[in-house]
Each structure stands twice: as C-alpha cells, then as structure tokens.
Specification:
The complex is a heterodimer of chains A (333) and B (214). Chain A has 333 residues and is an alpha/beta fold. Chain A has eight helices and 14 strands. In chain A, 32% of the residues lie in helices and 23% in strands. Helix content of chain B is 68%, strand content 0%. In chain B, α7 runs antiparallel to α8. Classes of the chains: A alpha/beta (333), B mainly alpha (214). At the A-B interface, β4 and α3 of A face α2, α3, α4 and α5 of B.
C-alpha cells in the first residue's frame, strides 16, 4: 500500500485538519468530527445535516456551505459516524426551523441516525425529519436485503434540498423535495479495481486485470457479478439499462445525468463514459436537462464509476441551478 | 445458588472480551473483507479498548452501571452497525441487571434482554446471517441448561457451544441484513463476522464467569 498518510489510525483527523486549513469559511469541530457552515446556525432556515463513513470525499464534508449542507459528520473510513456526532451537528445547525437528516441506506448509518434523533428529541425537542436515500438498482431484492444502498442520488439530493432550504422553505417542504429526489433517482455502479482501506493496508478484494465488478457499492464490497472487461460503450449500457428498466425516465422535463468517478478513475475516462451514457440515453428517448461529471462520491482509490439518473421538473431544475458554494460543488456565486 | 456475579466478575468478562477481540481482530476483519467492508475487527477493537479505558478512568460501582458504561462507550466509539447493536445489547443487559450482584438466572434474563434489544435495533431474524445467529441459540441453551439444573459453569459452556455452532451455521446462509446482503447469493460460503464476535463474547463469559455463580 502506498498512500499519502502519516498513520493509518489518524487519516480522518488529519484530513479534517486539512479541510480546516484549506477552507476557513467552514468551522470544524475536531472533537466531534463535524464540518459546519461557518455561519451556522442560520436563524429561521431549515438545517441540513448529513454524514457517513469517510472515504467518499468530497461527500459529505465537501458539500457543506451555502446552498447545500449545514453540517456533515465524518465517521471512520467506511464506518457510520456515531450518535454523539449527529447530536452535536443537529444542535449546531438548529436555527428554529427544524433539521433534516440526509441518511444513506446502510444498516449502520440508519441505526446511528435513529439513535441520534431519539437523543435530540429527548434533550432539546428540535424537530428532526430523516430522509433515507436508497437509489442503487444493483441491489435487486429488497425484501431479502438491507434494502437498496444510498449512492449517487445522495449528492443530487443534498444540492436540491439544500437549495430549497436556502430559499426559506419550511421543513416539511424541504423534506418533500428530498423524498421526491430519492423516489425519482436511480443509480448503478461498476469497479475496475478494489479500493484499499488505510487501516487494512491491502485491497479489499482481488480483481484480475481482465475482469470488472458490476453493481458495486461505495465501500469496497464486491458487486453482484464479475464479468470480463469490456469497452466503455458496453459498460455504459450495462450501467444505464438496469437504471432505465427500473423507472420510466422518458418524457417529462428530462433528467439530471450524473457520471460519478469512484476515486481512482481520471476525468478523461469519466467524460468518455459520459459520451457513451449520453448516447444510450438519446437512443432510449431520454432528454438530458442537466449533467454532472466528476468524482463526487468516491470509494477511496477504487477505479470505476457510477451512473445516476434523476427525473426532474421545472422546480428541481431551478433548484439545481441555484447558487451553491461548497468545497466540492460551486456555481452561481 | 450464589449471588456472586458482582461488578468485578462482570468487569472480568468485559476485559476478557476486549482481550479476545484484540487477539482475533485480524480474523474478524478478514471475514468482513469477504462479505462486508473490512472493518469489523478494527471497529470492535477500538470500541472495546475504549470500554476498558473507561473502566479504568471511572470504575463503575455496580453491575448495572458497569454494563451501561460499556454500552454507552460502544455507542459513542464504534459507529457502523456494530456500535448500536453491541451498545444496545449491553445497555439492555444493564437495565435488566440493575445495581445488585446477579445470580445465574438473573444473568440469563439479562442476556435475553440484550438479545431482544439487538432484535429491536437491527430488525433481523434468525437465519439472516447476523450476530443473532450466535446470540439467540446461546440464550436458548443457557436457559435450557439452567432449567435442567446444570451448574452455571456448565450452562455457560453450553451457551458458548451453541453460539459457536450458530456461528458455524452462518457459513452456507445467504445474508439478508447488513452490508453482506448486497452480495445476494455470493454471501453464501462465508462465515458471518458479527456471529463470530458474538461467539467470542460467550467464550469470554465461560473464561471469566464460569467459576462465579451457581
């Protein structure tokens, strides 16, 4: 393993020190490992809190700022944060209008956010609504699994619900935006390589040179099937087709098409993939309203990508175009 | 029947579990690499090390306080699914034990309360390839052995044997909860890391407690 680290045990704390140094507009609670907007809490504004295991940067800490999250809790690498962190984040962003928890559907994240919401209710009475993202079509049989994983839609949701909160919508409406986004978005991912968790020191799984994993998540868990490596145009079809067959995307106002890198794939390959994805969408009669290409939800150094499609209407397109100023996503300001 | 499961006996159990987790840390992580996210050993070791450090920094006065402190420490330090699940397990045990030294039947009741807490928090069922597959048969075996009049040490050994058998029986199962469930059929053929650490918890009880009560 070759990594830019000091000690594997200090990776999260050291990275947060770097975020604090690079982004003085943020306020970082190092003890609780929470990244706050510098001006939190904003009186009268719904607070948006998310969080999850580290190793997915820029998600979630890199999405803290005006127009997106108010706070993000950083867990250990690939491990959900603990309730104490979520309580500190929730109380720190409570401007009297309630707090929305954005939770990715993983067993640990859901349980820890649930415990945090119970603690907040017992301590302060702040109104908390949780919206859980579960957009990964690679997990097929939700009756017999922990349910679909929350992946790429989470990034889009944090932007869109963040814009809704920024323009002063009340908690119930911000939560409605979040639920709508989750209901109308689907994702599918693939890996060319495993990732290497710093504390483990070696790749989580072995993947031969000529094979790839289809249907991976974002924690180095293997995918649903392993197949021979194929050209990008075929990979794009393997990713887009299960998404299109899970939800009707054609007609209406189109989609936000999001090609996301998993951490070890260069942008040139992501744009190449986007060209193939756009071709498949055109062939399928799906209109692209907006697009996003880049590594926004990563799995450490995993090479590979995911494709997310989100069906949007005028309101969601307007929320998408609204100004955002965070380390990871920034436009219109 | 002696009321000798006092705070120092239970502290010995917690310390033995922490020692055993540290010893098996790499094995737990290797099992988790196959079907999960390669962190179970590191997370449990971090949590149990913190639990032992807390015992030394502020020694609890009685059994309930001891297990509550362990549970709160695990909830605060571990994260993931193991933190809330093991944390809830110890918190429910604490609530059932209370301040007085326990006899063997009170311990069995507390263990079952811990099991009920894990079920409520994790919403898993036996056969889902989780820690429940070791914990549920251990509770059943402990209750059955005590009902049959076995001494506490023998009853604990029966519980640990049932946990071990439950752990081994997770190998062919297809996971239905937790991250392993994302693998579908590919999760079969691997031993569940949570059931493995739970079997260590029962083994630690045999080592630390079998001379204590009954």
């Amino acid at each position: 393993m070759k990594k830019l680290i000091n000690d594997p045990a200090d990776v999260v704390a050291d990275a947060l020190r770097g975020m604090a140094a690079a982004h003085p507009e943020l306020r970082i609670d190092h003890e609780n490992r929470v990244v706050f907007r510098g001006d939190a809490p904003r009186q009268g504004k719904v607070g948006l809190v998310s969080g999850g295991g580290s190793g997915h940067e820029p998600m979630h800490g890199g999405f803290v700022g005006p127009g997106m999250l108010d706070a993000a809790c950083a867990g250990e690498v690939f491990t959900s944060p603990v309730p104490d962190q979520m309580v500190a984040a929730t109380q720190g962003v409570d401007g009297g209008a309630g707090v929305l928890h954005v939770v990715k559907n993983y067993t640990g994240d859901v349980m820890n956010f649930e415990m945090a919401a119970e603690l907040v209710a017992a301590e302060s009475g702040t109104e908390v609504v949780a919206v859980v993202t579960d957009d990964d079509v690679a997990v097929q049989d939700s009756l017999y699994t922990a349910g679909r994983r929350g992946v790429g839609v989470t990034v889009l949701l944090e932007k869109l619900a963040g814009a809704a909160a920024e323009e002063g919508r009340p908690l119930a409406e911000v939560a409605d935006v979040a639920r709508t986004v989750n209901a109308q978005g689907r994702s599918m991912g693939m890996a060319l390589t495993s990732c290497t968790v710093p504390a483990a020191g070696k790749p989580t799984f072995d993947l031969p040179e000529d094979e790839m994993e289809i249907g991976v998540g974002i924690h180095g868990e293997p995918g649903r099937r392993r197949v021979k490596l194929a050209p990008a145009r075929e990979i794009a079809e393997m990713l887009v087709e299960p998404v299109l067959s899970d939800l009707e995307f054609s007609g209406g106002d189109g989609v936000i098409a999001f090609v996301n890198g998993l951490g070890g794939t260069p942008l040139i390959e992501l744009y190449l993939m986007y060209a193939e994805v756009a071709r498949v969408l055109e062939k399928s009669g799906v209109t692209v309203a907006r697009s996003l290409v880049g590594s926004y939800m990563t799995s450490l150094d995993m090479a590979g990508c995911s494709v997310t499609l989100l069906k949007v209407d005028d309101d969601l397109v307007r929320l998408w175009d609204a100004p955002v100023r965070t380390p990871g996503l920034r436009w219109g300001v | 029947m002696a009321d000798s499961l006092d705070v120092s006996a239970l502290e010995a159990w917690v310390r033995e579990f922490a020692r055993s987790i540290a010893e098996h840390k790499d094995e737990l992580t290797a099992l988790d690499s196959a079907i999960g996210d390669a962190d179970h050993g590191a997370n449990m070791d971090r949590g149990m090390s913190a639990a032992v450090a807390a015992l030394e920094a502020s020694p609890p006065a009685d059994p309930g306080a001891l297990l509550k402190q362990v549970g709160m420490t695990l909830v605060s330090k571990v994260g993931g699914a193991s933190g809330p699940l093991y944390g809830t397990f110890f918190l429910r045990m604490a609530g059932t034990l209370g301040p007085d030294p326990a006899d063997d039947e009170a311990f069995a009741r507390a263990l079952r309360a811990g099991l009920d807490g894990v079920i409520a928090r994790g919403k898993a069922e036996p056969g889902d390839k989780t820690m429940l597959d070791a914990l549920a048969p251990a509770c059943d075996a402990l209750d059955a052995a005590l009902a049959a009049g076995e001494p506490f040490g023998a009853a604990l050994r029966a519980a640990a044997a049932a946990a071990g058998a439950g752990r081994d029986a997770t190998v062919p199962l297809v996971a239905r909860k937790g991250r392993a469930s994302y693998l579908g059929e590919r999760s079969a053929g691997h031993q569940d890391p949570g059931a493995t650490s739970t079997a260590l918890l029962l083994d630690a009880a045999v080592t630390a407690l079998s001379g204590s009560a009954g």
